[in-house]
Amino acid sequence: MKRYELRADIYKFVLGEQDPDSGSFPDSTWDYENPRTVRATGGSVRTWQSIEKFLRQDQGIYANESWIQLFMPFRPDLDDQIGGIKNKAGEIIYANEDGTATVFNVRGVFPQVDVNGKTIDYQVVCARVQIQP
After folding, report:
1. Cα separation of 130 and 106, whole Å?
2. Which pTM was predicted?
3. In this predicted structure, what is the pLDDT of residue 75?
4. Residues 68 and 51 sit within 8 Å (Cβ to Cβ)
5. CB–CB of 14/80 below 8 Å?
6. What are 6-23's pLDDT values in tens digits?
7. pLDDT of 8-65, one tens digit each?
8. Residue 46: beta bridge partners?
9. Which residues are CB-contacts of 33 (< 8 A; sequence separation ≥ 6)?
């Protein structure tokens, strides 16, 4: 599979202060204003956009879930989000119907090693966030 040069933004979850009465974290939010932009590559042939997933809440119903596969030298955490994926020309390649960049949850990070066992890249598998920010 031929891979193309991309740029991707990685978003972190910022935990706010804990409410002493309820124990919740009401000020917690995703930091979309300060992403970490990393170099990535992605394939053009099969981006895993037709994976069927069984929806437990609607017993017996199947639905397609949009997935992408990226390769990057940076290892994101499993609780990160990735968005703003741009091609070499700076154009967003995964966009919502309203033109905003699509955001994905990281679902898996797999190290890619060379013949000497040294990690050279990470394969990052992501699924589209159901409710886009």
Report:
1. 13
2. 0.77
3. 92
4. no
5. no
6. 999 999 988 878 877 887
7. 999 998 887 887 788 777 777 888 999 999 999 885 434 444 455 555 555 555 556 6
8. none
9. none
Q: How far apart are the first and last CA of the chain?
A: 32
79 contacts 54 by C-beta, under 8 angstroms:
no
Q: In sequence order, what are the residues at sequence separation of 6 or more whose Cβ sits closer than 8 angstroms to the Cβ of residue 1?
A: 43, 44, 45, 46
Token readout for 52 is 């069927």
Question: Which residues share a beta bridge with 111?
Answer: 122
Show the tokens assigned to 2: 């031929």
Please name the residue that has the structure tokens 């994926």. 85
d(C-alpha 88, C-alpha 115), whole Å:
29
In the predicted structure, residue 96 carries a pLDDT above the cut 90: no
Cβ-based neighbour number of residue 22 at 10 Å? 8
